[in-house]
Design goal:
Length: 212
């Protein structure tokens, strides 16, 4: 059983991090990018999501039937690889001030990184938060380079015939070839932003990173 002090069965998780430099040196950087507890802004955001199901019911430790939430927080499973100026890096190891590749070709600095762990109880009550599996080459027949798990609210930046590019969430893509809902007993979503909206390279595909 999960402890009642989780909010509510969500908690930030601080990943370990190795920073790489041009000379091949690896330095263990354990400076956290976020507090040990969820900050006020994130509490307010999560509360807004949970309010759709009735915040009081979601916060009670005793078992109650809950109205499913519409999950609106984007993010990636920790093993998804993001392109940085020192190579492809699992998102769970991404840290503030790392430089990531954007759609313009420029590398931009990460301004904030955090993570939310959804445990078995939360996912059982709110299955809409379950991740979406995007199989290799499911997007346009070329990308991503390997299967990835993302939040249903995570937007991909996709080419459209005669329309340029368009953002579509994983939820929008669910049910298209090789894109389907995955059921996990728990998952940690990692999210980040660059200070303003941009498109970043993850497993060879472009995904939208938006400030929060």
């Amino acid at each position: 059983m999960k402890h009642a002090h989780h909010f509510p069965t969500l908690r930030p998780r601080q990943p370990a991090r190795l920073s790489g430099f041009g000379d091949g040196t690896l330095v263990d950087d354990t400076t956290p990018d976020f507090e040990a507890d969820i900050g006020l802004a994130d509490r307010q955001m999560l509360a807004a999501v949970l309010r759709q199901a009735g915040t009081a019911a979601a916060m009670r430790p005793q078992a109650e039937e809950a109205v499913p939430v519409l999950w609106t927080i984007p993010g990636f499973e920790g093993e998804c690889r993001i392109t940085t100026n020192f190579g492809d890096l699992p998102i769970k190891a991404l840290r503030r001030r790392d430089m990531v590749k954007t759609i313009s070709g420029a590398f931009r600095e990460v301004k904030k990184v955090d993570a939310f762990r959804l445990d078995e109880d939360f996912l059982a009550r709110h299955p809409a938060a379950q991740p979406v599996m995007i199989r290799a080459k499911a997007l346009g027949g070329t990308h991503p380079q390997r299967p990835i798990l993302v939040s249903p609210a995570q937007a991909a930046w996709l080419p459209r015939v005669g329309e340029g590019f368009k953002a579509k969430t994983a939820l929008d893509l669910e049910g298209t070839p090789n894109v389907h809902r995955a059921h996990r007993s728990e998952i940690t979503y990692y999210r980040f932003h660059l200070g303003e909206e941009d498109k970043v390279a993850i497993e060879g595909s472009w995904f939208v990173a938006t400030p929060y």
